[in-house]
Amino acid sequence: MSAEKLIEQADAYIASVNVDELHVDVQSLAATYEARKAEEDVRGQVAFARAIVRRARAAGYEPGVKALGDMTAAELKDELERRNEGRDEADLIVPTGKNKPDLLAALEADDAE
Q1: How many other C-beta atoms can be found within 10 angstroms of the C-beta atom of residue 65?
Q2: Whole-model pTM?
Q3: Do 8 and 52 belong to one domain?
């Protein structure tokens, strides 16, 4: 993967999470990565970007995928329908309502399972 792509993915990952909620070693990677960016140390930035992207992928992060909380109600409805495809009726995600908070809660509950 090119240096530019690694940096782009690391930036996207860091922007998509609350760094304070990450494991302490990932917090350290992110802090060092940001310091390398500030110092314009491209080699160091790429090395830490590579480590961050590896950790992000191991945690299930997919570049370019919006976080549920950032989606519109229509996008959440589409995500709910996508997840329900092929599920048994007993396993369907059924929100309590049709508004964004209800759709979001149903999808977050599904993620927690």
Answers
A1: 11
A2: 0.48
A3: yes
